[in-house]
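Researcher: Here's a chain I'd like modeled. Treat it as a single chain, no partners, no ligands.
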Amino acid sequence: MDRAYLDTSAYVKRFARTGEKGSETVGKIFNACRSGKLNIVTSLWTLGEGIAAIDKKQRRGEMSQEDAETSIATLWNETTGLAERELLILVIPTGGLIIASWRCIRLKNVSADDALQLISAMTALSNIFVSADSRLVRAASEMGLESYNIEEDQDSTRLEGKLGRT
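Model: Modeled as a single isolated chain. C-alpha cells:
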C-alpha cells in the first residue's frame, strides 16, 4: 500500500477552510486514505505547524476566530480518528530524527523544519511526498521520493491520476 507523506503546507490545506489551490487534491488524498487505498503519513510536528498556520491566518484576518477554532478542532479530530484506525501514521520527532535532520539541512539546503519533514518521510518508508513548497518537493525527489507540488496543476493532475489507480 502506498504511503503518502504530507508536509505541513499540504496537510493544513485539508483544515484551513480557505479554498486554497491544492486543497481539493488534499481532500482526495484523505478520501483515498479513509477508503483504505493508501496511508497518510505526517509528523506530529506537522500538527503544531498546522495549528500555527491556522492561527496566523486568523490573525491576518483571512479567517474568523470561529473558523480557526473549527479548523483546529477538525484537524485534531480527523487526525486522531484516522490514526486510531491505523490509516494515518504519525511520526514522533525523536532526538535521533532531529539529529538526522541536521545532515539533511546541509545536504539539501532546507530549513530545520523541512529537514525534519524529509527525514520523517524517509523513516516512515513513505514512497510519495506531497507539499506546496517547490524547493522541498525538489529535495524530496532528489532523495528518491515520488514527489508532488499540489499547487502545480500538472502535479495535482498526476497525483489524482495515481489516486484513481490506487
